[in-house]
Amino acid sequence: MYKKFYREFLQAPSGSPSSMLHMACHSHHYWPDVTLDAVQQYWRDAALLADEKWGPIFEEKIPSWQAVIAKSLNLPRADLIAIAPNTHELVYRLLSSFDPNKPLRILTTDGEFYSFTRQLQRLEELPQVEVTRIAKEPFATLAERFETELHRNEYQLAYASLVFFDSGVVFPQLLDIAAQKPQDTQFVIDGYHGFFARPINLSTVADKIFFTAGSYKYLGAGEGLCFMTIPENCTMRPLNTGWFAEMAELENRSGKVGYSDNWLRFAGATMDYSTLYKALAIFDLFHREGITIEKIHRYVLDAQTRFLDSMDKSDHPILNRSNLIYHDLEQGHGHFFTFDCSQPEISQRVQEELKARAVLCDRRQQFLRLGFAIYHDKDETYQQVFNS
Questions:
Q1: What is the tens place of the pLDDT at every residue in 336-358?
Q2: Which end of the chain is more exposed for a tag (fewer CB within 10 A), N or C?
Q3: Torsion angles phi and psi, residue 362, rounded to 5
Q4: What CATH number is given for 3-25+293-386 in this structure?
Q5: In this structure, are strands 186-190 and 129-134 parallel, antiparallel, or unpaired?
Q6: Residue 278: pLDDT above 80?
Q7: Which has the closest alpha carbon to 227: 243, 209, 240, 214?
Q8: Between helices 87-95 and 114-123, what is the axis angle to 10°?
Q9: Is the entire prediction scored with pTM above 0.90?
Q10: Where along the chain do the CATH 3.90.1150.10 domains lie?
């Protein structure tokens, strides 16, 4: 159905018994064909315009990107979507907005992605920083436990993933919790494993949260283009700030550090915009073909159902229901499955066995992850995963 939009990445390596089945797509989606022309157009524009390229980039390309992001997340203001090469840069810029001379209490979970986890561990070395981590499991009680703690103490920052990177499980009622957050708590949602995979409606929390995601995973535009939504009337003054934040005032600098009431408040500095061109080309392709996030999500849900059917029939010693970290496929799961193999050595062995059968997946310690994408055939039964 959708495979026609992708180049033949899916051929098996020499000596492999069957066609390639790419199931590491939760980490890096293959790029649609239109991205090749987009990269070449970026090269032509940059080479021809040189420094003049900033005009069309800031006046046309970035607003177009912001507009499609706002539409996909149901946000009221596209100009409150900041961009950067990665989400870590944006989150750290937000962290730099807090007064370093005052206590900083942060509420999060024990299931956040490595970059934020590492950054918090480093910040905890400072005497004024205190971090509280809520155990993500059991998932059935996570929402209640997180919300209770959020209102029990005075937290300056709360941070949680919409879809956990290590399991694919959706944080239950996270948007509802954010909607009722304490007024003085800044609330950040890591939406990377939900963006352009699951339908997301931020209309009721747009003025209460920062939402981060990017193009590397489910959009399929590659690395180097991430975003963070900003609540309206935000007055934070990042200590980590770059010259792009003064883009509108470069010719009339006053000598004071001012901040715009739009996305430039969290702007950084020079970056490569080739991925911006790729992302816009993909949005244009999907718009022409009538491909929506809702259709993508339904397509993947159907694929996941076929996978589970094949798995249940296979009686695989590792890839089975007892090892699957599973919450609620229809309402509470992202676009990949994770199996707890109990030991890193076992997950590595299974990964190698799958690769020998031309199935590409990835792992995190003892956790083996298998993802789904719209370039999987619509009648794929995933027998290739289970046949030994």
A1: 999 999 999 999 999 999 999 99
A2: C
A3: -135, 175
A4: 3.90.1150.10
A5: unpaired
A6: yes
A7: 214
A8: 30
A9: yes
A10: 3-25+293-386
CATH number belonging to domain 36-282: 3.40.640.10
pLDDT digits over 164-192, tens only?
A: 999 999 999 999 999 999 999 999 999 99
Three-state secondary structure call for residue 347? helix
Amino acid at position 253, single letter: R
Strand 336-340 to strand 367-371: parallel, antiparallel, or no bridges (unpaired)? antiparallel
DSSP per position, 104-137 = EEEEEETT--HHHHHHHHHHTTSTTEEEEEE---
Nearest in space to 33 (alpha carbons), one of 10, 3, 57: 3
Q: Which of 302, 312, 316, 300 is nearest to 349 (CA)?
A: 316
Mean pLDDT of 270-286: 97
CA 255 – CA 60 distance, rounded (Å): 29
Q: Tell me how far CA of residue 259 lies from CA of 84, 212, 244, in angstroms.
A: 17, 20, 11
- Tokens, residue 286: 């999907």
One-letter amino acid at 47 equals A
Compute CA distances 68 → 190, 246, 374, whole Å: 19, 24, 20
Contact by Cβ (8 Å): 105, 233: no
Where in the chain do CATH 3.40.640.10 domains reside? 36-282
pLDDT in tens, 211-246: 999 999 999 999 999 999 999 999 999 999 998 888
**What is the biggest distance separating any 2 CA atoms in the chain, rounded to whole angstroms?**
70
In angstroms, the CA 305 to CA 325 distance is 15
Residue 249 half-sphere exposure, CB side, CA atoms within 13 Å? 15
Strand partners, 187: 158, 209
What type of residue sits at position 26?
H
- State both tokens at 315: 């009686």
Q: Identify any residues that bridge with 335 across adjacent strands, giving them in sequence order.
A: none
**What is the DSSP track for 316-345?**
-SSSSTTTEE-S-HHHHB-SEEEEE-SSHH
